[in-house]
Structure to design on (241 residues):
C-alpha cells in the first residue's frame, strides 16, 4: 500500500511565486517596463531567461540570489505537512512537478532541510553559466494544446507512473496538490480513486468548479485546502484506514 503525492511548488509548497520573488534582487526591486511587458502567454520560461540576463547585467550574483530565495515563506502548515510526510516515507512517494526551476527549488528545499522528503523534482533545468548568469531551459517538448510550451504536467505524471510500473511500483491512490491553471491538465488525467487537492481561492479550484458546472466534472474526488494542515488531516485518515 503506497500513496503518490504530487506537489506543485509556487503558491503550493511556498506561499509565493519563486520567479517573481527573484525581482527583489533587481535594482530598486523592480524590472524596467519594457522587460516586464515582454512576456507572451505560454512563453514564461523565455521571459524568465530575459529577467536572469537583466539581473546578471546588473551584477546580481549567485549568493545574493540564494539569500533572497531562501527568505520565501512556506505556505501555512506546509512545514508540519512535509515533516509528517518525511516521518512516513515508507507509505508515501512524493514528487514535485513545477514550472519554476531546479536552482530555486533546490535552494529552498535544502535551506529548510526538506530535500529528502521528495523522491524526484520535475522542473525547468537551470544553471549558472561560466560568466555567473543564471540560465533556464524548457523542461521538455510536448504536443498538449492546453499547456505552456515548456511543460505539460500530465505528460510528466504519466511518464513517471509508467516508469514506476516498470520497476514494479503501483499506487493505491494519487493525491495531486496544486493551485494553478497548469495543474488542471494532470488533474483531468486522475482516476476515480484519486484525489485532487486544489488550493482554496486559486485558479485550479475555480477551473475544477467550472468543469462541474458545465457537467464535465473531473473523474477524481476533489478536496479543497486552505492550510497544509487540511492536507495532513486527510493523509492521517488514509494511514488509519
Amino acid at each position: 500500500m503506497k500513496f503518490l503525492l504530487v506537489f506543485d511548488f509556487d503558491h503550493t509548497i511556498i506561499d509565493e511565486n519563486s520567479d517573481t520573488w527573484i525581482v527583489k534582487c533587481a535594482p530598486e526591486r523592480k524590472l524596467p517596463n519594457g522587460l516586464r511587458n515582454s512576456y507572451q502567454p505560454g512563453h514564461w520560461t523565455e521571459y524568465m531567461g530575459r529577467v536572469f540576463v537583466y539581473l546578471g547585467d546588473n551584477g546580481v550574483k549567485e549568493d545574493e540570489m540564494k539569500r533572497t530565495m531562501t527568505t520565501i515563506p512556506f505556505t501555512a502548515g506546509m512545514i508540519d505537512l512535509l515533516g509528517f510526510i518525511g516521518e512516513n516515507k515508507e507509505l508515501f512517494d512524493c514528487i514535485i512537478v513545477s514550472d519554476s526551476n531546479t536552482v530555486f527549488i533546490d535552494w529552498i528545499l535544502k535551506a529548510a532541510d526538506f530535500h529528502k522528503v521528495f523522491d524526484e523534482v520535475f522542473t525547468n533545468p537551470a544553471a549558472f553559466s561560466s560568466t555567473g548568469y543564471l540560465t533556464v531551459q524548457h523542461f521538455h517538448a510536448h504536443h498538449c494544446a492546453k499547456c505552456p510550451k515548456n511543460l505539460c504536467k500530465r505528460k510528466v505524471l504519466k511518464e513517471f507512473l509508467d516508469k514506476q510500473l516498470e520497476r514494479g511500483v503501483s499506487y493505491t491512490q494519487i493525491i495531486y496538490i496544486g493551485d494553478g491553471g497548469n495543474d488542471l491538465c494532470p488533474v483531468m488525467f486522475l482516476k476515480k480513486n484519486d484525489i485532487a487537492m486544489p488550493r482554496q481561492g486559486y485558479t485550479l479550484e475555480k477551473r475544477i468548479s467550472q468543469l462541474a458546472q458545465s457537467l464535465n466534472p473531473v473523474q477524481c474526488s476533489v478536496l479543497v485546502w486552505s492550510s497544509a494542515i487540511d492536507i495532513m488531516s486527510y493523509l492521517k485518515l488514509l494511514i488509519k484506514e
Observations:
- The domain at 2-15+74-125+147-239 is CATH 3.40.50.1000 (Rossmann fold).
- The first strand starts at residue 3 and ends at 7.
- Strands lie at 3-7, 92-101, 120-124, 126-128, 134-136, 173-178, 195-198, 221-222.
